[in-house]
Amino acid sequence: MAAIGFVLLVALLLASSAAACDRCVHQSKVAFFSKAQALQSGACGYGSLATGFNHGRIAAAAPSIYKDGAGCGVCFQIRCDDKKICSEEGATVVVTDRNHDNATDFVLSSRAFAAMANNGMVPQLLKLGLANVQYRRVPCDYKKKNMAVRVEESSQKPHYLAIKLLYQGGQTQIEAMDVAKVGSPNWNFMVRNYGAVWDTSRVPEGALQLRFVVTAGFDGKMYWAKSVLPADWANAAIYDSGIQITDISQEGCAICDDGSWKH
């Protein structure tokens, strides 16, 4: 894609991405899945990898948070209102699925739900089944782990490439992505297929580089992964992007009252 076209597209994407302030404190209810398998078939497409994220503290999120897949991989701090049962810190969860239950903003893994409890109070919390909570978006911290790229099984070399993004840190959304042969200035755009999966039918030959535009501050920021996929890339393989995303995106809304984050 030509540089000017890419910049214009990104500007349009960023302009249309404004939503409710995730970083503000929200009130809702959460339930939990009794079986981990329910989250392995999540709408983000992480599959069995999902249960390995964040020590298994993962969640299905309402459509306003899932954002047609742009919310996949983002992190939220959630805590229940009953301070006799639940801790001040609560639990940090990673979004791996879409929640279709209009009664709650999140459905958590049982491990994430239990992580909200004070010491010795897990049975009492699990017995509730449904808890009143406060939640807010927080940066994802993967302890200096680089963002990774997994080649999907649906990829058909050399004509079609689908990749899944893993370990996107910070508090951002990926708004656009391009792919090119390593060393080439000729970029081809990729599109979000669903969830965390992006694809293209215009696959360059040879080793591949990627560039991403993410929300950062009140604008976008470009990341360039100069060598990600080798020339002999293979389906189901995971490759290190060599980059870490740690930016914080600022939403165009009123300043949050952090004083509401209290018991």
UniProtKB/TrEMBL annotation:
Superkingdom, taxonomy of origin: Eukaryota
**Which keywords does UniProt give here?**
Signal
Q: Which residues cross the membrane?
A: none
List, for all copies, the residue spans of the domain called Expansin-like EG45. Answer: 41-145
Per the record, the GO terms for biological process are: anatomical structure morphogenesis
Which N-terminal residues, if any, form the signal peptide?
1-20
Q: Which positions fall inside the Expansin-like CBD domain?
A: 159-241
Q: Which GO terms describe its cellular component?
A: extracellular region; plant-type cell wall; plasmodesma
PANTHER family noted in UniProt: EXPANSIN-B3 (PTHR31692), EXPANSIN-LIKE A1-RELATED (PTHR31692:SF4)
Record-stated family: Belongs to the expansin family.
- Its name, as the record gives it, is Expansin-like EG45 domain-containing protein
Question: Could you tell me which species this protein originates from?
Answer: Salvia splendens
Per the UniProt record, the lineage of the source organism begins with: Eukaryota, Viridiplantae, Streptophyta, Embryophyta, Tracheophyta
